[in-house]
Amino acid sequence: MEALKEVDANEAYENDLPADVALDCRAHQIFYSDFLAVRDSHVPIKRNQITGFIGPSGCGKSTVLKSINRMNDLIRGFRFVGDVHFHGINIYDKNIDPVSVRRNIGMVFQQPNPFSMSIFDNVAFGLRLNRYKGNMHEKVEKALRSAALWKEVKDKLKNNGLSLSGGQQQRLCIARAIATEPRVLLMDEPCSALDPIATRQIEELMVELKKQFTVAIVTHNMQQAVRVADQTAFFAVDISKGGRTGYLVEMGPTKEVFENPQEELTKEYLHGEFS
Amino acid sequence: MSQTGLQLPQLERQPMEPRALKSIILSAITIACAITACIPLFSVLILLIYRGGKRLTLELFYTLPPGAFDAHGVGGFGNAILGTAFMVGIAGLISIPFGILAAVYLAELDPHSKISETARFCAKTMTGLPSIIAGVFAYAVVVLVMGHYSSWAGGIALSLLMIPTVMLTAEEAIKMVPNPMREAAYGMGCTPAQSLVKVILPVAMPGIITGVVLAVARAAGETAPLLFTALFSESWLSPNNPTASLAVLIYNWSSSPYENLIELAWAASLILVVLVFVLNIISRSMGGKTKL
Ligand SMILES: Nc1ncnc2c1ncn2[C@@H]1O[C@H](COP(=O)(O)OP(=O)(O)O)[C@@H](O)[C@H]1O
Ligand SMILES: [Mg+2]
Fold first, then answer.
1. What is the CB < 6 Å shell around ligand 1?
2. What dihedral do alpha carbons B11, B13, B15, B18 form, nearest 10°?
3. Which of A84, B235, B258, B266 has the fewest Cβ atoms nearer than 10 Å?
4. What is the ipTM for the molecules in this complex?
């Protein structure tokens, strides 16, 4: 958080976002080497709401999501043309440190990926990275409670995080991500490796979490989008120019997108999914 | 067989059928070969226990080599045990940090760069380096320059043999760490260095230690690199002077005309083989510990 504030005032982007938008992603073009993966996608993410990304596989949902906290920087040949406005700055600005971006914009992945260390250390991990000086136990307990995992693990905090079940591991990853209280939490198909009961638990958890955080979630499950998302962004693949480029077709409040889609493509896709 | 006249397929075993027979014979041959592979180690162990076991006393560990005319049963080789430990220690201090840091670069930082490709190729070639060449090299660059034989020269010669083993096994161990763990580390806001130290190396550590232990075991038994570098000594360790080691002791004394020295050489062989044996068992048990 500190590092982000350090940005020089005159370098800072003039904050003209609507008050309810926490983060504004304007992806003009996203490349993997020469391959144009995503184009013309403007995705505003509203504060304390859940924004769902839906669309057929390969349409660039993960690409856009990971661009938001610069996870894609790790991929060779990745190039993002556009900007992501967050608290008055463009996180793709040259003097922005991607590491501090990731400390402010947390991420939960498709496969639960706890570290091979104790449950406690998993949750304390980010706090220690940020040299948190206060009461570590209190923070860890709070994060585990918020992730609806505390009751199940409070007697075995010393056990390895990998000894938990898949659903518990994913909730541990959520606890790990929210322990440092990031402003935004990104989730890339967080339930696709989980059984229906664990999925329900995570969904309830997300609805709980949006009181504190801003959440963006990729899901391939339409019903899940309807259940949890306040806003829905529908992506599709454009094969007209020979490539396979993803783009944002439409975005709006979930209810409107599902009940009264503006675009023909959205209608067809939703019809296909629900019939 | 059945009332409808349907032919049920023959499902029972037919051991005498040619196909089955061939398979049985082949299995028998492979088993025989596998068992034969165990014979050298066990016969060496039995021979060493038989010849060296009777001289195996605590005295060996704290006394100096006997003079040629000392009574039978007198003397030991505490200095050689200490010398081997000291020189392997020096080699470890050089090769372990060096090998692991190089492996970090190869596996994690830039696996496909020219430097990585070249270093990997060099290390693979070095694993096949005849150990005597390591000795000759250390003789040229350390002994000739310093002007005398020393444990330092011996340690450096051994480190040349250890570096490629440590480096390549550590690289493999780091590469085995699953990618989602790296993503998790970066996703939490780790710098590359933090992700390495806090997440990747702890997971890779059992594999890295396995490589280190195997390299130590190999170095402890090497004779040729020490012949031209550390030579041998009849007195206690003095690092700037020629230094005794178990391997060179065995080489020197086993061809001596004195029964006393020959017996001690057998005992030294037994100690060395048991050491290597134990190190290998340690490395095996470490290898199984990887938590993923
Ligand atoms: N690391 C990568 N390197 C090259 N191409 C990639 C990479 N990741 C994704 N892509 C490509 O980008 C497109 C969008 O992928 P992705 O964002 O994963 O889609 P989604 O999450 O919607 O299924 C796909 O065509 C995919 O093949
Ligand atoms: Mg995806």
1. A 32, 35, 37, 57-63, 75, 244, 246
2. 20
3. B235
4. 0.84
